[in-house]
Amino acid sequence: MPAAQDSGLEPFRTALRAYVDQTQPYRKQAAQAAEQVPGKDEAATGAEASVRARQNVLAEALKTRLRPNARQGDVLGNAAAAAIRTQVSTAFSGPRRDLLMDALAEQNETGKGGPQAVTINDHAPAPRVPPQLLDVLPPLPRQLEYDFAGRTLIVRDVDADVVVD
Known about the structure:
This protein has one domain. It is built from five helices and three strands. The protein has helices spanning about 10-35, 45-65, 80-95, 95-110, 130-135; strands spanning about 145-150, 150-155, 160-165. The radius of gyration is 17 Å and the shape is globular. A three-stranded antiparallel beta sheet has the order 1-2-3, with no helix packed on it. The mean pLDDT is about 85. Helix 1 (about 10-35) packs across helix 2 (about 45-65). The chain is mainly alpha-helical.
């Protein structure tokens, strides 16, 4: 079941586009830094170092230059959060509830620890959202993804590996 069109989500979509547009020059800088890592083509160590360099450069730019004062709700907003809560609640009370619960239980078994505090612009080890739930959430640009931190749904920058909102 695709995500419903909700007028409360339009500011969220606009904020997502703005975020991606604003971060694009920093993504290019991060990619250039990753290219300069010696031995980046060596699978064992260089490739990981290259990925980490890209993540670190972009995360640092987000923290210090682009979004140093970022707060919860800057991207998501109250209207979108309410719409998403409704969509998630509907998914958990629908016919696919058991599939969703199984997927979440499986992730929690192989998950990344217990609930942790979530801070904007910081890394948060969090399991990904199961496909059954992604079907009802508003789509995100490829640079972002939904994750869970405990019972909190977060938007994470894939390239910087930090919480956006």
